[in-house]
Structures are given as C-alpha cells and as structure tokens.
Amino acid sequence: MVDQAEDKLSVLLHLIGESAAEKVLGQMRPDRAAALRARAKSLQGTTISARRREEVLSDFEHLFQLASRSRGPRLRIAGGSDADTADEVSESAGSDWTPFEPGDDPEEDLLRLTAHQVALSLESEHPRTAAIVLKHLPNAEAAAVLRALPEELKQLAIVEFSQPMTENLNLINRVLRATVRTAVRMPPAAAKQVDAVQRIAEMLRESDKAERKPLLEALQSHHPEAAALVQEKLYDFTDIVSLDNRVVQRVLSEVDVATLALASVGSEPELLEKIMTNLSKRARETLKDELEFQSSARGDAVAGARKSIVQILAKIDQEGN
Questions:
Q1: What pLDDT was estimated at residue 178?
Q2: Domains of the chain: residue spans and CATH
Q3: Residue-level pLDDT at 3
C-alpha cells in the first residue's frame, strides 16, 4: 500500500514538472525526498498513460477537496493590514454577487466570484496555487485578488508567478475547480469592521462613573493595551466645556500655560471662554500672549498637548474628585 502511494506521488511530481516538484520535495524529510526524487526521475522519457494520469490527478483532487472542507473561512481582525482592501471585489462581479453552482469552465466561474472570495480561498494554500489562479485571471481581477491577499502570501505568490509553471492543463483545471468550489462558499465581501475600542468608549461615556470604574478596571486587568486605547477615546479635550468649574480649575492647575495655549489653538470660543473663566487674571493674560505665539502650531503638536490634558482629566475623573 505504501509503495502504491509512493508510486502515485512520484507520478504526480513528474507531471507537475521539476521546478514545482522540487518545491514540494523541499517540504519533506530529506530521506523521503531523495527517494521520491529518484522515482520521479526514473519516469523521465516514459509516457504516462491517460488512464494513469487521470487516476493520479483524481486522487490529488480528492485530497485537495478534503483539505478545503476541513478549513473554514478565517476571521479577520479589525484594524488588520488588509482591513481597507479585503472588501474589494472584481469588476465583473460587483457588490451584488449572486450565488451559483460551479459549471464546466473554472476560468469562467472565477470571473463570477468576488476578489474577496478568491483571496479567502487561497489564504491557506501554497503560493504556487495562488500564482496559478492569478495567472488565469484577467489583469484587473488578478490585481484585485492580489490586493486582498495577506501580505506574506501576496509577496510569495508574485515570486512564484515569475517562475515557470506547469503546463499540464488537466492539473491546472483541477486546481482552478478546487479553488472555485472553496471560494463559492466564502462571503462575497468582508464583514463590516467594528471599532470595538470606539464602541466601548462610547458605551462607557453614557454610563455613570460608579458603573464605569469597575468595567475599566476589568478591562485593564485582562487587556491593558485595549484599556489604554479606550481611555484615550473615553475623554476628549472639549469635555472641559461641560465640566463643573471646580473640576476644570483642578485640571488647569496641573497644566503649564504653554501646554494649555498649544492645546487651545483652534478651539471653539465656548471652550476658550470656559478655560479663561477658570484662570486667574494673571494666568489669563499669559494665556492670551501664548495663544498669539502658538497660533501657527502644527496639528500634531496641538493634538499632543490636548492628549496630555485629557490624561490629567481622566486621572481626576477616575479618582472621583
């Protein structure tokens, strides 16, 4: 039984060509690779019967299908490197994709799929499989699929694309058919990404302070990085307008005038009035002078100053004072 399986594998390696075969052998144990390489080379110059080719390729296709069925679509994480391009679809398919049963022409079926579906079906495949599929798509559709692939697979697929590929039409058709069968079960477009951090911050802003504190502490204990991001979005520099004067005075007491002036650049008159009202006369005059000096400050510098004040505001709010 083992010899029969090895024989079929050596025939398959012979059919796909030396370049592709070496890539497969490179993933095996050296002793087994050497034995299979010798078997495949012994077939050079011999004619493989059509029946034998069909038998070997049918077995290969069967295994390919089993592997595809055992693999579900991968979850995508919001903010991932492909988040902005995963929902791109091929021009021929559009966003109103209609489910269909694969037909006799896999190349035609590929054009009925969205780029997102094809990319998902290739995520766990060998880069050469991705290259074969890309090679049999028109340029526009191939480019859309390429953009939707994970970065590492995208680069490896391009490298494979540049290399000689098998010209065995039977094998190519089987690869394309298997890809279509997997892709047609995939969602046509990426699910709408939800900014979880933003949603948490919005919910907490609507909660009472007493409810908010234990939730933030729980998040901090399990996911400190996420907690820090939520903290940044939970408070805003413009919140100063709605704060009690006593709280505003405490916040301002911990901020130097230069930082306060920088943060105030471009602020609404209502916010500036709230700040001025809670400063001493001397501090107000100093702030006015600083505002004139800082009026042309860069946006990133203004954002940085506001962030430092928001951190003070968050600290005071969480202390319950």
A1: 92
A2: 75-183 (1.10.220.30), 196-319 (1.10.220.30)
A3: 65
